[in-house]
Amino acid sequence: MRILLLLTSCALAAFSPSVASAQSSSKLEELQKRLEESQKELEEANARMLDLIRKPLSLFTSESPPRCDSENLRKAVANALNMVETIESRKITMDPKEQLNLATTIVDVADAARKAGCNKEARAVYDYVIAVFVGSGYGALRQRAEIGIQDLGAR
Question: How far is CA 6 from CA 9, 20, 30, 37, 41, in A?
């Protein structure tokens, strides 16, 4: 009888609001922790993807003198365009902040090509930026691309 009474009181305690609240709070904390870990992993993956553009771009800009037929310039442009196409095809997703970082990096590629005198390559990337990044959040980058195109025409 005592055992039955003890089991009943344990079962009732499990259904009491304070125990349920503690269990719910613990589950929420665990979910929050997993969400934070996932967010950190996503940020690291996005940074690695941008490095696929930034590393060859950095190598290109450090070439002396930079050449329009540079393998580093070719890689930076190809990786940038492939990444945008992959995002547009919904094979990977990036949050808006990371998409803006990607667009900025792509304009950086075009600017570096323009500064090196690689007008054809710069123009192609600038045109791509204007055509693809059409949302209101990209207005400043499209303007940067338009200014870059104007500078190409002034040369």
Answer: 5, 19, 31, 41, 47
Residue 49 inside a domain? The answer is yes
Is 2 among the domain residues? no
Q: Which domain holds residue 88?
A: 39-154
The one-letter amino acid at 1? M
Percent of the chain with pLDDT over 90: 49
Rounded CA-CA distance 6/132 in Å is 69
15 domain-assigned: no
Domain count of the fold of the chain: 1
User: In 3D, which of 95, 89, 92, 63 has the Cα closest to residue 76?
Assistant: 63
pLDDT digits (tens, 9 = 90+) for 11-20: 545 555 555 5
Backbone angles phi, psi at 115, to 5 degrees: -65, -30
Return the beta strands (E) in 12-95 as ranges: none
Whether the full predicted model's pTM is greater than 0.70, yes or no, is yes
The answer as to whether 79 is a domain residue is: yes
